Each structure stands twice: as structure tokens, then as C-alpha cells.
Amino acid sequence: RGLGSVINMRDFERVAEPLLSTVAWAYYASAGDDEITKNTNASAYQRVEFRPRVLRRVGAADASTTLLGCPSSIPVFIAPAAMAKLGHPLGEVNLTRGAGATGIIQAISSNASCGIDEMVAERLDGQPLFYQLYVNRDRKKAEELIRRLDANKFDAIMLTADAPVGGKRERDLRLKGEFEGPAGGVSVKSDDTQGVSQAMFAGVDPDLNWDDLKWIRSITSIPIMIKGVQTVEDALQAYNAGADGILISNHGGRQLDTTRPSLDVLLEIRKHAPQLLRPEFRAPTGPTAESLAHPERLTPADDASAKPLPRRFEIFIDGGIHRGTDVVKALCLGANGVGVGRGFLFAQSVAGEEGVEHAVNIFKQEIELALRLLGANKISDLRPSFVEVKDK
Ligand code: FNR
């Protein structure tokens, strides 16, 4: 399966489409209702424009960073996406191997088509793994799963909060009655009344609430990130409730359609709750009084009066990210890292583990190129002054 023609992440989608079954294509590519948010997630990044600095010794660049304390060769992780076996016989195992070989982090879906043990068996020494949690209505089952995550030393739990029920994914619905396969350890069957995605939500508890976060916290010390935050209010509530981080996400537009693109939520947090960001990211975008007074400095001097939050709180974002420049823009605006969902599903569908490695290399090269052309050498050089955000 030709990787030669794949030179960017959009190419994976184009090459994957004819290789996938109609059911797989519909499940992977679909989004809620009219798929408006799926598209604005991506186009929103065009509203952020760069302000590169010149003559900055960019002979070398380093895209590595840490995500919730775990090393990562690039500030990109594999967002949890179910049913990788629909695209390739080895399924999520491709993601575990590809992530291990390239030094990035895989977040495993609760609805993965491979078992936890199969993926953990592929884990290299010291390879970090995150787990995305859907909380079962049966709390005994939920607790057993969390204890398994503990026993397997998972590095973070992503508690998905934007999917108490499944969205209306019409491409998927039109194919109901045509699929049966494994997900999350149970067999999922779409029938005459539901498509694949609806069948998968059968065990998920729609009454999940902030008290359950306390309950999860009481049974495990694994760091917890809330996935699916879409307002500054919920970002603040997540911090106040003791979460270690949030993943700003609208599930790739697969849930409530016409929600704002993820990028706008990050901008809202910058505006109304800058204290949630690391101090150096609270500055406005564009030139500032300080950068004009000291144009020779790439990064502003530390403001001693700016206090970091009393405890760790990292901000991640996903949805519509296709380019190294998208990643760098999100980081300039204060994100610690970004997730990519469909891109890695398509990559493993096209060429298994090798496809995943190819995707990471594309991101790595594009991120390093963007860093150097911006006048930066490393992820910690990035600041809001490297971008300007245009009004809608
Ligand atoms: C997802 N996503 C998802 N999220 C989650 O918390 N649990 C899950 O099981 C799944 N499953 C899933 C399947 C498929 C096919 C897709 C495309 C997505 C959402 C995923 O984690 C992520 O939020 C989005 O995919 C990010 O958007 P992009 O990168 O696909 O645009």
C-alpha cells in the first residue's frame, strides 16, 4: 500500500478511502448531523497567522516535549478512537507499536477493537500509555476496569465527558444492519435500529457527573484529564474538581454539531481564565510593550509577579489538526499538546504500524520546519507573540 504518495496527513485520508469498506469509511469519516463542526475544527486554524522572527540561529530544531510528565518526541498524541480493526487486521496494536517506535503517546479507546492485554504486551520498556475511559452504568465493571489500568501502570486516564450519548452520525446510520465486530471487549452489532456508533454507546452511563470524578479519584492515583471540555466554565470546574488537565475537544465534531471549533474554546480560556495557562502564555498575541522594548529577546523575561497555578494543570486540544503549523499554533496559544484522531486511524489503515510511523515523521518534520521558520529552536521557545488571531 503506497506510502510514497503520502507526503502530508490529508494524503492518508485520500489513500485510505478506496481501501476501506463502506462501513469503515462511514464510521471513521462521519461526524454529527451536517458535519459543520468537523469542518470548522480544521478551518479555524486559518484564522491564526504567524509572526516569524528572523536571524535567530535555527541550524537545529527539537520538537520533543512532555505531556502530563511523560516524554513525547513531538507534542502530538494519538487521540482515542475506537475500532481500528475496521481499517487494518492488527487494529490498535499498530498504534501501540508505531507510538513506541517513534516515542509518542497512544491514548487507548474504551471501545478499542484489541484487548488491553494485547496492547500492553506490545508496550516497550518505559513506553507511556494513556487510557480513555467511558464509565459503565455498572459501577462494579467500571471499578474493575480502573483497577486494571492501575495494575498495568497507565500514565493517564482521559475521562470522556462529551459523549453521555452518541451523536447522530448519519453516514453511519444509513449503513445500519451491516456490521458486527468487537469493541471494548464486547461484540458490537449494528442492527435495523442503530448504526455502529450507537451500538457502542449501549453500556455508557449518561448520568455521569462531577461526583463520579471524585469517585474515580478515590480509587486510583493515575492522573485524570477531562476530555471534551468546550467552555471556559467547564475548564474552571475541571480544575476546581481536581483534574490534572483537560482535553478541549468536541469529539472531532461527532457529537453535538455546530458547537464551536476547539480552537475557539482555547481562545475563550485565554480570555476569561488566563490563570489556567502557564504564566508565559497569558500574554496577548502579537507585539507587546515588553517585546517592543526588548526586540532582541525571543521570549519575554519572566514576570516575577505572575504566579503559576498551585498544582499541575495541562491543557490539550484536538479536532481538525492536520499540519505541523496547526500544532505549533495551538502551542503558541498555550496548549501543552494536541491530539489527532482520524489521521492516525487512516494512517494505520493504509500501512499498519509503518503508516503510524510515517504519520509521526510527517508531523515531526512539519513541526521542526515551522519552529525554524518561526525563528525558534524548541517547543519551550513558543509564545503567544509568534501568532496573531484574526477576528471571525
Ligand atoms: C473518535 N473519538 C473517540 N473519543 C473517545 O473519547 N472515545 C472513543 O471511543 C472515540 N472513538 C472515535 C472513533 C472515531 C472513528 C473517531 C474519528 C473519533 C474522538 C477522538 O478521540 C478525537 O476527539 C477526535 O477524533 C479528534 O478529531 P480529529 O483529529 O479526528 O479531527
Automatic annotation (TrEMBL):
Keyword annotations of the record: Heme, Iron, Metal-binding, Oxidoreductase
Top-rank taxon, per record: Eukaryota
Domain FMN hydroxy acid dehydrogenase: from-to ranges: 1-392
Transmembrane segments: none
Cofactor list: FMN
Region (Disordered): 280-304
GO molecular function, one term: L-lactate dehydrogenase (cytochrome) activity
Alphabetical GO biological process terms: lactate metabolic process
Protein name: Cytochrome b2, mitochondrial
Organism: Vanrija pseudolonga
Full-protein positions shown: 190 to 581 of 581
